[in-house]
Design brief:
By secondary structure, this protein is α/β, with parallel strands linked by helices. It has a single domain, classed as Vaccinia Virus protein VP39 (Rossmann fold). The chain is about 40% helix and about 20% strand. The protein is built from ten helices and nine strands. Strands 1, 2, 3, 4, 5, 6, 7, 8 and 9 form a nine-stranded mixed β-sheet that branches. The longest helix has 17 residues. The two termini are about 30 Å apart.
């Protein structure tokens, strides 16, 4: 279902600690903040597609949601299913093991950036549209076309001559093809231009309501970000101020991640 290098990346624990500190922690806090405002109220049913180890599914279950994870990695399924209140099973985002109109919300917080072919990404959105109830919410996460360019300077990846060709390819067509390069870099992926999202969502039969800049440019602030996130007061301020500009179109390309919030058209 996934290419070997992607499977290997996640089997080596690529998702287990990524959202715990720094840039990843900001991504988690902002994504969670958005989810609390766009999902229907608990005990709504949520299908977390590509939900990995259940990093969002666990808190959602604790909040009273009925959460089911579908993921292509057996190791992820085992870890997610161990979380209280979460069920999990193997599956492909392009052919979900779920009945038509059977859930209140669908999360696509991983699948869209591992499918380089547009037809596959539209198939993922279309499957979400199939299984969500009329009027239900679908939230998809994508990586910005420019993320590796910025990350290369923030983390000094450009000091390795192998990194520049990866960035140039991603800037040209969105494909980040990391098969043989240093495994500390992100695995093979597709990086969306923000303007692509409307077409993919619409073609799948969903109605795009919002595109949200998750981190904005704050993910590039380095050590200062760690200081902010170590302070409850500064973290609260960061989240409050970020809400006010999260729909600003000019920030979408500067954000490492973008959330597309769509709804299924009512019958």
């Amino acid at each position: 279902m996934l290419s070997p290098e992607i499977m290997d990346y996640y089997r080596r624990g690529g998702e287990r600690a990524r959202l715990a500190t720094g840039q990843g922690r900001l991504e988690f806090l902002r994504t969670w903040d958005v989810l609390t405002r766009v999902l229907p109220g608990a005990p709504a049913t949520v299908l977390d597609v590509g939900g990995a180890t259940g990093v969002y599914a666990g808190p959602l279950a604790q909040a009273g949601y009925q959460v089911r994870v579908v993921d292509p990695l057996p190791e992820h399924v085992v870890e997610a299913a161990a979380r209280p209140g979460v069920t999990a099973e193997l599956g492909d985002a392009r052919a979900l093991p779920a009945a038509e109109h059977s859930v209140d919300a669908v999360l696509l917080l991983g699948p869209l950036y591992h499918l380089p072919e547009r037809a596959d990404r539209v198939a993922v959105w279309r499957e979400a549209a199939r299984v969500v109830r009329p009027g239900g919410v679908v939230v998809g996460a994508t990586i910005s076309r420019f993320a590796s360019l910025f990350d290369g300077f923030v983390k000094d990846y450009f000091s390795d001559a192998r990194f520049r060709p990866l960035v140039e390819r991603a800037l040209a067509d969105g494909v980040h093809h990391n098969v043989d390069a240093d495994r500390t870099w992100f695995t093979s992926a597709y990086f969306h231009h923000p303007d692509e999202l409307t077409g993919e969502v619409t073609e799948a039969g969903l109605v795009l309501r919002r595109r949200v800049a998750v981190e904005g440019p704050l993910w590039m602030t380095g050590p200062r970000l760690e200081e902010i996130l170590a302070s409850p007061d500064l973290t609260a301020l960061l989240l409050e101020m970020s809400r006010g500009v999260e729909d600003e179109p000019s920030l979408l390309g500067a954000s490492s991640h973008v959330l597309s919030i769509a709804v299924s058209a009512p019958d």
